[in-house]
Every structure is written in C-alpha cells, then in structure tokens.
Amino acid sequence: MILLQIDLLTISAAALLIATFAVVVRRGFLDWLSGYRYQALVLAGVTAVIGYITGTWEIYVAAILTLAIKAVIIPKVLLRVTKGLSGQLSDFNPYVSVRSSIIISAILVILAYALVQEMFANSRLDSVARAYLPVALSLFFIGLFVMVSRRIALNQIIGLLIIENGLFLFTVSLTHGLPLLIEVGIFADILAGIIISGILLSRISQTFDSLDVGKIEQLRDD
Amino acid sequence: MILAADYSILFQTIILVFSSGLANSLIFGRSTVARIASFAPAIAGSLLLVIFAVLVSISGSKVQISDPFVATIPALAINLYVDGMAAFFMLILGLVTFAVSIYSIGYSQQYSGKNSTRSFGFLFNLFVLSMLLVIASNSIYSFLIFWELMSLASFFLVIYDHQKELNIKSGLTYIVMTHIGTAFILASFLVFYIQTSSFSFDSFREQAPSIPQYVRDISFVLAFIGFGAKSGLVPLHIWLPQAHPSAPSNISSLMSAVMIKVAIYGLVRTTLDFGAPMTPDSAWWGVLLASGGAVSCIIGVLYAAIEKDIKKALAYSSIENAGIILLGLGMSVLFQSYSLLGLAALALLASMFHSLNHALFKSLLFMGAGAVVFRTHTKKMDQLGGLIKYMPWTALLFLIGALSISGLPPFNGFVSEWLVLQTLLSSYQLPNLALQVTISVVSVVFALTMGLALATFIRIFGITFLARPRSEAAHQAKEAPKSMIVGMSITASICVAFGIFPFIATSLVSASFGFDKQQHFLSLQTLSPFAVLGVPTSSGALTSSSMSAGTVALMMGCVGAFCAGLLFVASGRKTARKVYSTWDCGFGQLNERMQYTASSLSQPLRVVFKILYKPHNEAEVSYFTDSNRYLKKSAKVETHTRDVFNEGFYQPVVKATTLVLDTVRKMQTGKINAYLLYIMIALVAMLVLAEVTR
Amino acid sequence: MVEPTAVSLQLQIIGVVQTLGLIGIAPLITGIMRKVKARTQKRIGASIIQPYYDLAKLLKKDEVVSDQSSWIFRSAPWIMLISTITAALFVPSFLPFSPFNAAGDILVVIGLFALVRFFTMLAGIDVASAFGGLGASREMMISAIVEPALFLTIFVVSLSLGGTNLTSIASSAANQFASGVIIMPSMIFAVIAFFVIMLAETGRIPFDNPATHLELTMVHEAMVLEYSGKSLAMVQFSQSIKQVILLSLFVNFFVPVGMLTPAIGLSAASTASTALSFLAKAMLVSALVAFAETRVAKWRLFRIPDLLAVAIASSMMGVVFFYFWR
To answer: Residue C143 is nearest to which of B443, B455, B466, comparing CB atoms?
Structure first.
C-alpha cells in the first residue's frame, strides 16, 4: 500500500510537469489556454490526492475550488476579455525560440529538484512535500521564464497564473491545508487579478494596436 | 625470453633507422631514388616500432634506455623510459607512420622539381623521430626539447607549400598557439619541480602522493590547458583547422592522427601517472576533462558539418574526436576518484581504444583526401563529385574510413563509441547526485555529436565521390598511384579488423595500461573473436550490458547470405536491369549544377544551429526589366558562416594586445640616449630591489 | 563472463523463428496502419494484406537504374535489408527474450539503424538528382537531432530497468509489471520521448509523410525515389521491418501487459499467450500511431526540432525523476 501511495504521488507530480510543458511548447493563445486548463485539472487532482493522503477535508474543498475557478472560470474570463482585443494573439516570434525554451525549462526543472534536495537536506519532509515541493518550485521557475521570454502580453498573464499555481501547490504540500477562509481569499484575489489584467490588456491593445510587450518600450520618456 | 637490454637495443636500432632516414634525405638529391631512400627507413623503422611497442605492452616490462652519449655531455643527459603507457602511444605512432610512409612515396612525387624534396624527407623523418622521443622522454629537459622539436618540424611542414599566402598565415597562427601551450606545460612541470626539486619524471612519480592536493590541482590545470591547446581543445582549437589542412596531406594525417595523440599522451601521463592517487577531492578534474571534451566534441563536429573545404572539415572532426577521447579520460578520472576501479578501467579502455581508432581512420581519411587533392588540385568540395567512377579504390577506402569514424557497425569506431556510451550509462554508480545529473547532460551532448558526425561524413563522402563531377578537374581525375593506395589500404584493413575483432585492440590496451587482473572483465585469456565486451559492476560481475562485435559481423554475413538465397529463389525468373538517365521530371537535360552542393546539403543544419554559425546570405538578382520583377535574368546567392570563437574571443584579444603593444612602442624612440636611460633605470631599479629584499 | 556466450542450438532456432515471425508480420503492420489511417479519413482503403501483394509484384518487375549512379546505389538496398534483419534478431518480440541478446544490445540495434540511414542518404545523393539531395539534407538534420533524444531515452530506460541488453530490459519490465508497478514515474517521460522518436524514425507525419511524392514534404521518399523493382521491394521491406522493430521495443519497454515472466516459465501455452498478446499490442499501438498521424498536420521542416526538443526535455526529466526517487 505504501508503494502504491508513493507511486500515486510521483505519477501525479509527473503529470503536473507534463501539463506545464504543454503551455511552454505551444505558440497560440488558445493552445496556452487549453494547456492552462489541463494544468488546472491536474492540479485539482493533485490537491485531491494530498487531501486523500493527509485526510483533511479542507483540501478537498480547495481541490473543488481549483477545479471550478482555475479550470472553468478563469479561462472563460480570459476568453471573454480577449474577444474584443485587436492585434495578434499568438506569439510567433518569441524572444527565446520554442525549442530553446523547452530545453531551458527542462534545465529549470532539474535546478528546482537540485535546490529542494539541497534546501531540505537536513529537515525531514513527509512524502507529500518531498514529491510536490520540487514540482511547485519548477512551476514557479517555468512561469517566470514564460513571462520573461515571450512577447505577447497574454503570455505574461499565463506565466503569472503558472506561478500562482506553483505557490498554491507549495503551500498546500507544505502545510497540508490552510484555513479555508484564507484559501477562499486567495482564489478571490486571483479572480480580481485576472479581471484587472484583462482591463490592462484591452488598454494596451487600444493604445498600440498590438499586444507586443516590446512596444511598451515606446512609453519610456527619452 | 627477451631481456630488458634487448628492448633497449631494439629501441636504439629504431632511432638509428629513423636517423638514417634523416641522413638519406640529405645525401640523395632530387631523384626518384631520393624519395624511396628517405621514406624506406621510415617504413622499416615504424615496422620495428610496432613490434617493439607490442612486445613491451604484452610483456608488461618497463624499459630504461641508456643514452650512449651520456659520457660526453652529462649536463644534457637524455633520460628515456618506455612503460606500457608509452608503448601504447608508440604503437599508434608506428602503425600510422608505417602506412603514411608508404603513401608518401607516391604522394611526394608532386613536389619533385617544385619544392625541395630534400627538406621534405628530412622534416618528415625529424617529425616522426621527435614524436617518438617525446613519448619516450623521462625528464622535463628531454620532454620539452623534443616537444619543441616536434612543434618546429611540424611548423616547417605546415608552411612547406609556402607559395600560398594562406599557408604562411596558418603556420604563424600555429606557432603562436603552440608556444602558448608549451608555456603552460612548462609551468605545470615547474610546479612539480618546485615540489620535488628534481627534473626527472621518476621522482614525480614517486613523490606525487606526498604533494599537497592544491599544488597538484594547479599543476593539473596548467597541463590541461597546455596539452589541451595541442590537442585542439575548444576554445584553444583555433589553429588546428588552419594548420592541419595547410600541411601536405601525408603530414596532415600524421598531425591529426598522431600529434594530437602525443598531446593526449602528455595529459594521460600527468593525470594518471603523476596525479595518482585519486581521491574524491580530485573528482573535479574528471568533470573538467569530461565537460571540456564534450564542448570540443560538439563545437568541432558542428563546424565540420558545414565546412566546404574537405581537409578543413576533417581537421574540425579531429577536434571532435579529441573531445571524445578527453571525455573518456575524464570519466576514467571521475570513476577512479570514487574508487570505482572497474568502471575507471572501462572508461580508460574506451578513451584509449578511441585514440587508436581515431589515429587509424583519421590518417586514412586524410590520405584519401590527399589522393583527391593530388589528382584534382582542389580542396573545395563544391568542385568535386563523381570521383567514385574515376578513383574507385580511393573511394572505397575513404568510405571505409567514413563508416568507421561515423561509428557504424561492423567497424572499429562503433566499438569504441559503444564503450564510451556504456561508460556514460554507468555514471549512475557515482555516489554524487550533482555528478550523475551533469554526466547525463554530457551524454546528450555526446549523442548529438554522434548524430552530427554521421551527417558530416555522409556529406563529405557523398559530395566528393558521388553524383556528377562538378568541375573539369574532377572529370579529368584518375586513380591515385599504387603506393598511395597501398598506404591507405593498410589503415583501412586495420579499421575493419579492429571492428570485427576488437579483442585484439582491447587486450592490447588492457595489457599496456596494466589493468588489475581482478578487474578483468575483458576476455584476455580466451582470445576469441566472439568474446563479449561487457560493463563491470562494483562487485566485479558483468551487468546486463554486453556486445560482441565479431558475432554481430558474423550474423550480418549470415543474414546477407540468407537474403541473397531467398531472393534468388523467390524472384523466380531473372529480372532485367535497365540503365537509364535519372528522373528529371520530364524536362530533360539534368546537369551537375542542378544537384545539391556541399553548402545546400548542410543548409538545414545551418538554420537550426544558427546561433553558432551566424550565417548571412547575400542575394543578388538582376531582372530583364525593372518594372517586372517576375522575370529574373540571373540570380546569385552567397552564404557565409562565421566562426564565433574567432570573432568573439580571439579578435578582441589580438586587438587589445596590439593596442597595448602600440603604447609600449612609444618607448622605442630611436634616440640612443633614451636606450641608455632605460639601461640605467633598469640597473638602478635592480640594485634597489636587491637591497630591499635582502 | 570471459567465455564466449554459448547458447544452445535449440534456443538459437527459437530465436530465428521469432525473428522470422517479426519480419513476417512487418508488412501486415504497415497494412494495418494504412487501413486505420484510411478509415479515420473516411476512406475505405486497401486491404491490410496489400503490402504483401506490393512486395511480391515488385520482386517480379524489371529494374531501372540511373546512369549516374555507382555501386553504392546498387548495394544500398542490400545493406538496408541485412542491417534491419540483423537488428531484428536482437529484439525480443513474441517471446520475452532473444537468444542473441548477449551479442547485441540496444546500442547495436541503433548502430545498425544508423548504418541503414547512412546508405539511404548516400543512395539519395548518388543518383545526381535534386530530389535525392533534398531528401538527404533534410534527413541529415532530423536524424542528427533524433540521436540525442533517442540516447537519452535509452539512458532512462536502462537506468530504470537495468542494462542495455534487450532481454534483461524486457524481462525486468515484465517482472516489475507482475509485481504491481504499473509504470515507473521516470518511464512516463520515456514513453512520451520514445513515441516522438518512433514517429521520427519511421518517418510518420509530423516529420515526414510516407504517402507523398511532393517535393515540399517528402524526406525518406525523396531519397529512394530512383529505386524500382527488386531494389524498391527491399527498401520498402526494410522500412517495414524497422517500423515493427521500433513497435516491439515500445511494446516491450512500456506496455509489458501479458508478457511472460521467468517465474511462469516457458511452455507451449504460455508462449502462445505471450505471442498473441504481443500481436494484439503491436496492432493496437500501430493503430494508435496511424490515428495520431491523422490528427496532426505535417510540420514545417524547421519546426521539427521543436518537437524533438520536447523529446529531449522529456527524457531529461525522466533522468531527474529516476535519480531523485531512488
């Protein structure tokens, strides 16, 4: 039974990483969105697994909230926001080419694993934290990298969402469930963040007729 | 039973034979006899050398060679010493020199009447002799003297074709870089000298364990840079693709096949012999060697893949192979520092077997390229093509070389690359997580290298020998002289033999390097062609990773016979074979300008790895009328690639140096009083300094 | 282990029979792929045994060779066929072992495939047409980048299952499955990478289209365009064999369902069940490949490295997962 448990943990961790790569490898906005949706689904599953192993009911609620908000509502909101935008939604000319960013992301994952190994070398982590902490850190790194390397403003939002997922996983796997009130607060926060960034996006697209963040340079007062 | 004294006599005979080659080339003038007279001693001497080396390594004896002139000039006593390690590298030298000397008889006929054949024979023999003596040296003195002699002889051979401006330039780059390397080697030896206060390698060997680790670290890094520069380690490789192709082709094959190995020998000697015993503290040596090797591999092969000059492409591929050898050596050091002796032996076997193999196939390829240049007078692949019809033997032998270097079964390159891959796969036994992950990344680089090497040699062989001739010169080519074919077929047949019967080479390596009898995982007792090469574990047993090259070759033969028989039966009636022109989409008149060229064949690679090549295309199109841009009169496209190392590293350094020197030059006023002033200042300063430090 | 590995004659015969079976079903697998592809594209498609008819017909036809070509062009089909059949001898397929496994491991199989590629590309260049060069130059780029992905995948597989010998990999995969481990985490990543590599090596759609003769898209077909008659039959047959070898590697590495474990032992019934389950799995996976092929479009040549980068990254993570969970 123990064996099966560990396998469930690692396999779900692997699935989460694969889901994250689905965002990195693709170039179109709708593909990112579906990648993100897939990631949210897996994240909900992972949260449920944590709930199952630790036996805390709050985590199940968090899993359901993840499913509802991240897999359904946020993609819906983003779709609606982008409908009225002018300019290209897909990134065909990122700062770092797709194949390099895939390899770099893989290296970031290795780095995350090595870092967690180093950081928690002396502290005794339980199996849940040992499985998910490196994944959480990887999500954080990859999200940052996506934000850095892409041109289209939508991608920065997706990157932010990946980072947020990483942080969520970090807290859940380390603390085995925050009080429900805080969880709900965080989810509300993300929703607000998405709506605000949606407004920001439409302002950018109105001003520059494009979502290319490279154009924002023009705002600098020389 | 052969006594040590007999070995000593044999060795002195070899030296005498080569020296007679030196004398012969000076005595005989410019006739055909002179060509034979200067290369025949080299042939005999190298044959003796092979026998000597094999005997020494099999018997495991250590030969101290007394210097006959020691009484006359005791200060310059030359201390020579041959152990298994040296004997193995002498074997490489002997095998390659044997083939190349035969080849040179035919090859040097193009110089008769043009350049001085006298100096050619002299320098050739001097070059070989100095390499031999470097390997045999047992003290700082003799090592550096012969090392320098080797560099100078090869320098003069590089600029032998001095009518060409480019050769002089590459010769200069070579001499500068090689001296920078020598400076580092000298420094590395001096570190040992300071610790042991002795010039002899014997005392280095004895006192090495008592030398503090940090001193050995410093010495290792200096040796790594010094010998690395000579073996084409990136980014110190800049001279290699210039100098090796500039030399006459027989010299190119000696330089690429043997001189690089002499540098490897120096590195092996300093790390494994003087560096012992290894502790986990010296694990980073292994990481440095392995990662330096991996970088050399990939950079070398990437430039080889796009190079248009056939000899330059081969030179870049030498950088790649030196990288593979260093990678294996690094893995060996790494395993040794964690006391995984079985694996360390495996890695060293891989590295040394690859050294031997590279010497064989690279000399073969350079000789083949030399034969092509000999008949067509061009090194540009875009002007060659179709030579398989005019030079069938050269083509066949070159193909064997290409198959071997690409690491394809059943040729020797495959066996050594198999060993390197197994070494990398065994890295999971290292007790350190960071090392495990690093080596797995290194192995990706190595695998990419193998893939690109395949592409490189398909391109070189395909463009040079297949399809239609691309120029008149290629049309006029005819088969190379017999002696050249014989020279090439010697190395080619050894390539095939080592591919099918690798046990010959592996047992030679393990005998030379004295692998511990307990660690034996190779069939030394049963010298059977079907013996299995395997990977040892810590307990000494084989893991389930094994391969038998002889069996694979036998199976391929059986399958071939079976297929032929089956097709004979199945096809029933005899089918006809009609010769007709190539499919031309119905347009007719296919010509040689419509085929892919060397540049177009590598275009996808240029695009994918554009970070490194920085290719830029210039298109020049003229139209019949400016108003209508659909009707093109003519179009011309030029593509250029750049060497990022030259532009990013060497040019700034050279620029900075010239800038500094220009400032210093202001001191050279031309006034005699100023010079006297400098002398005075120097004198006073020295006196003051002496006073202060007293 | 110093002795030459002696394998009893009986086992050797079993091994040869297994290989004959494998190369016997090779055209069938090709036929199934074509059929599945046709059905998913709402066509009826040819019968699944059509490839056998094609081969038989080609063997009877006269041959045309180019006047520009040399003996390389003429001998290349032989080398392709011999190398792929030799590779097939090392691969356990219907049985969980191959008697020749000590003589050749997975690296030998890959080396033999590389030999096939070498001569295919040379044959493409040899005929002096632009098509051959075009195919060769594209194949060069693809095969050079496939190599690291392939090796790293083997790295993961051999770390997870031990060794590079195919029998030991296959049997430890079967043992693990029998002991209740459905799939090891590191192997999840290896599956993804190997699937991509399988598509690349067999020239399936995002990389190459086996059904086209359009110069914009063809890679492998461009190189063998000049072949006809018996030589073409040999080229096509060796391509089918290569495909079925990769399929059986995939099946035996990653889907060891119904595989014979040493604990059960070799008997007529158990052998038959293993063979049948292998056949079923191979057909299923080939149908999956064909289905995946219809789902995607052919990629632009310079986007292909992106897909191979996915394979490399995926197997890199496989290595990480292996090392950090040991």
So the answer is: B455
